[in-house]
Amino acid sequence: MALEMLKDMRSLIVGQYLEFYYGRPVSLIEEILIYFSACILTYAFCRFLLRLRDKRRIESKICHFQQKYKKAKKIFKSKLESNERRQTVVIDNITKLPLEELIYKMKNKELHPKDVLYAYQCKAIKADDDVNCVVEPFFEANDWCSEVVKNGDKGPLYGVPVSLKDIFGVKGYDASGGILDFLDQPYSEDAVIVQVLKRQGAVPFVKTPVPQTMLSYDCHNSVQGQTYNPLDKKRTPGGSSGGEGALMAAGGSIIGFGGDIGGSIRIPASFCGICGFKPTAGRLSVKGLIPFLKGQDLLQSSIGPFGRDVSSLVLAMKSVMVPYMYELDPTVPPMSFNTEVYESKKRLKIGFYYEDGCTPVTPACRRAVEITKAALEKQGHTLVEWSPYKTKTNIPYFYGKCVLPDGGKYFKNFLMKDRVCKVAVANLNTVVSTPQWIRSIIAFLVKPFMPRLHQTIEATNGFNTITEYWYMGEALKKWRNEFTEQWQSEGFDCLICPSFACPALPIGYPAYCTSGATYTCLYNLLNFPAGVVPVSKVTKEDEDAMKDYPTFDLQHKWIKKGMVGSRGLPVSVQCVALTWQDEMCLRLMKDVEEAIKTD
Fold it and tell me: What is the structure's pLDDT at 599?
């Protein structure tokens, strides 16, 4: 009876219509196929509408924050223009002073901290107009400066304006890390390192931009847009601390703090011709920073300073490695700065290498190591050439596994809620949006002509089981131990090597030259302290020698193409020491800086 009623309903509701439409009776199977097709089309149409709605919401949110930051800068500019100090402060006379001299003049009342703050605020806003290197100013900076003056010249960073990468929590402000989803979540208190800086007399005054997801050494995100290298606006300032590098190279900051999980301090420092230092992970507190790659601890992020010279880095490190930091964050080892190691005049045994086995360096970067080696030998140090241990396959494998242990699901979640920036993360988005079995096929197909990309894609497949994760962690620790043993067997105190495979690349190129960062990623994987010191500039001879640069990998072809017109760009070397020997690394950086000046 029920079946008969169902048939009658089908005939009344659908059957007659379909018979009229097709001009003949329609079978039950045909009706089911039509129903199924209609359901698929309806589902697809609903998904389209939902995605359109989400896209509009994303664009609305982006527009909101773009307008918010634009308005904040406009208000800030008007305040600077109406500031009474405008008539008396000679900006360049202040911003050109070395850090130690600047502090000396403030402590001796030759300069007022508010004059210094005003000068750097003006310089930073001007730099932002030029290269887009400021997210937003801190409006409370003048109040913080007043507190510093009220407390007297007690701190080692008395009155020094400090810029912060957009990862540090500052009370009342967002810290986005270049990710739209992290916006509109202002911090309720300052990050530990920000609290320590304030206690030591520093005045945070601007926040600087980063690339989307921070997994890029370009500098572009959906809200801030592109940040440019002030030395050549067609080129990237590096990343992910690209805003810090650009601001300092433009003269808009004297000390900055950034983060480094793959070269994010050292690459911008190298591309912008300034100094940058990545301490051993755990030496400085990361409490109060955005939760980047939260939950995994095989590859730890490190925060460190930028400066115009090595002495600025040393002062910054000394200033924050104090009992107050250990009081705020007991997880940080209470290791004060070892001045004895840093100031030692002992002759060192220094290892060096020109290439890491993954990516060939350009002639300019090879020459940078050569001239640094010669200059250090003149100082009486012993230099011994060395080959880094098992880097060719280990760097891309371990780094890819550590950054994308879930195959990219974590980042895919963020990118789905943002406008994907093609300059910064187009390739990353493609990878994390592609099913893992398809990635394996692509990796196999590109292996003959892009072996580095093959290794990288293979590594991005993540782990299928927690057991795989454990085994990989054990393998990484074993490699770290073996690398350290090889180093110690040579009796090295420290080491110099290229800071990157090439000088600053044109905007957009980093997405196609990811292998160039193996020179910095290595020391994140090993957790060795490492810093960058500029030693030379690209010459005509360096450009001419690029004709012999190997191009057996497509990524190398991009590097070769990117070096056209690179004459005059800064070239740096990287100084490295063993884990926890940060002062030894800084001592080597100081020796390199002095040796190059003398030479």
Answer: 74
Q: Which amino acid is at 352?
A: F
Q: Is 408 helix (H, G, I), strand (E, B) or coil?
A: coil
What is residue 449's predicted lDDT score, i.e. its pLDDT? 74
Query: What are the residue numbers of the active site?
Result: 165, 240, 264
State how far the Cα of 366 lies from the Cα of 332, in Å rounded to an integer: 37
User: Rounded CA gap, 535 and 231, in Å?
Assistant: 16
Q: Quick one: pLDDT at residue 143?
A: 97
What does the pLDDT read at residue 435? Answer: 85
- Residue 579's contacts (CB-CB under 8 Å, 6 or more residues apart) are 280, 484, 526, 527, 528, 529
Residues 544 and 538: their CA atoms lie apart, in Å, by 11
Whole-angstrom CA distances from 595 to 375, 379, 525 are 5, 7, 29
For residue 344, is pLDDT > 60? yes
Is the bond into 240 cis (omega within 30 degrees of 0)? yes
Q: What is the average per-residue pLDDT within 533-558?
A: 94
Q: Which two structure tokens, joined as six digits, stand for 249?
A: 């190279």
Spatial distance between the Cα atoms of 130 and 27, rounded to a whole number of angstroms: 71
pLDDT for 552 equals 82
The residue-averaged pLDDT of 183-187 equals 95
What's the CA gap between 259 and 266, in Å, rounded? 10
CA 481 – CA 488 distance, rounded (Å):
10
Structure-block tokens of residue 144: 């913080």
Query: Residue 426 and residue 410: Cα distance in Å, rounded?
Result: 16
